[in-house]
Design a protein that fits this description.
Elements (H helix, E strand, L loop, with lengths): L1 H8 L6 H4 L15 H7 L3 H38 L1 H18 L16 E7 L9 H18 L3 E7 L1 H8 L6 E6 L7 H16 L5 E11 L2 E10 L7 E3 L4 E2 L3 E10 L2 E10 L15 H74 L1
Parallel strand pairs: 1-2, 1-4, 2-3
Antiparallel strand pairs: 4-5, 5-6, 6-7, 8-9
């Protein structure tokens, strides 16, 4: 008993830094801006345990959503790769016919250049959220471009592709002239691309608009995406796609993205692909006028380009969602660690207080 009393007599009171402000009745209250941390550290033991379990469940959900998004990115990549043979053959025929034709005055409504008074903006956004700032970047890019057109004295119309863009601009119908709405879906096909291309084609050929610009997100990497603006119509006779500065991209040049693993983590690489357009059979005899053939090929190339943009935008959305869920999982892991630390400190403070009471009672 004497040994126990001596041990109790040497026991010191826990410090304020150890117990926190909750251990002292006269402690000064924390500022209002620290209310979140105050709730964590001053919660009861049961409340902390419930909070830890809730964070654990949230982390499981975000981890699962990350894996699902990664698998869908892989499928989006496969869709782009599987569409390469059709695009390559289409470009070969398009270039071959142009080589035989060797004229620039192609009588096709898709290549008619006229004074620009009205521009149609085709904005591709996502159908779902929880993907970081992906949708916000595309919408802000569209609003900025529309403001630039208005400042230049041009009229702007908008075709919306994706539920998030539709929801945003529907609330502002008094500010924008919306002429079409389409859903992106989880696996864009030629059917969806054809429906969108028909709407754009009707606006351009019907002289309702003089130029069609496509605003979509280019897949740069798994952690980076870049909203860009391309001139979709009018096309050049060679089927080139140009940006708003007039810089055209050769139809024979293309890029495909590959999802790989590097040092145990997912990574994305872009590979430049050059379509060989030199081996065109010169002995080929056209039953139809080459101009008519080009007139039939250009709409196909337009649909192919639009489908590729839809697939790339979907890949960007999925990559953004994967990164957002990865960040959410990391934050949940960090929060769980801090909650466990607070819970252990609270338990240790309670045990220390009980030992002090026992020692004080025994010494009395």
């Amino acid at each position: 008993m004497a040994a126990i009393q001596g041990q109790c007599a040497r026991t010191t009171l826990p410090s304020k830094a150890f117990l926190g402000d909750a251990g002292f009745a006269g402690a000064r209250r924390a500022p209002v801006q620290q209310r979140g941390s105050l709730q964590i550290f001053n919660a009861s033991g049961k409340a902390l345990r419930d909070r830890i379990n809730s964070v654990k469940n949230t982390q499981k959900i975000t981890d699962a959503m990350k894996l699902v998004a990664a698998a869908k990115v892989r499928r989006a990549q496969d869709a782009v790769v599987n569409g390469r043979p059709f695009s390559e053959n289409l470009v070969k025929v398009l270039f071959g016919v142009n080589q035989r034709l060797r004229v620039e005055d192609v009588d096709s409504p898709l290549v008619q250049i006229r004074p620009v008074k009205t521009i149609l903006l085709a904005v591709i956004s996502g159908d779902r959220g929880l993907c970081g700032g992906y949708n916000n970047q595309v919408i802000k890019k569209a609003e900025k471009r529309h403001a630039e057109l208005k400042k230049m004295g041009l009229k702007g119309k908008i075709v919306l592709i994706g539920k998030k863009g539709i929801t945003y601009f529907n609330r502002r119908q008094n500010q924008y002239d919306i002429v079409g709405r389409f859903e992106l879906g989880q696996a864009p096909t030629t059917k969806e691309a054809q429906a969108i291309a028909d709407a754009l084609y009707a606006e351009f050929v019907g002289l309702d608009v003089d130029k069609v610009e496509l605003i979509y997100t280019k897949f740069v990497s798994l952690i980076s995406s870049d909203p860009i603006i391309q001139t979709l119509l009018p096309l050049t006779p060679q089927g080139e796609i140009c940006d708003i500065d007039g810089t055209c991209v050769d139809a024979a040049d293309d890029e495909i993205f590959k999802l790989t693993t590097k040092e145990g983590s997912l990574s994305m690489e872009r590979e430049k692909v050059k379509t060989d357009t030199s081996d065109f059979d010169s002995s080929l005899i056209f039953e139809q006028d080459p101009v008519q053939i080009i007139d039939a090929l250009l709409p196909l190339y337009l649909n192919s380009t639009l489908l590729r943009s839809l697939q790339e935008s979907l890949a960007c959305e999925l990559a953004a969602r994967m990164n957002a869920m990865s960040n959410a999982s990391d934050n949940a892991k960090d929060l769980k660690k801090r909650l466990n630390l607070s819970y252990n400190r609270q338990r240790q403070a309670a045990i220390t207080g009980q030992i002090i009471e026992i020692c004080s009672g025994s010494s009395a």
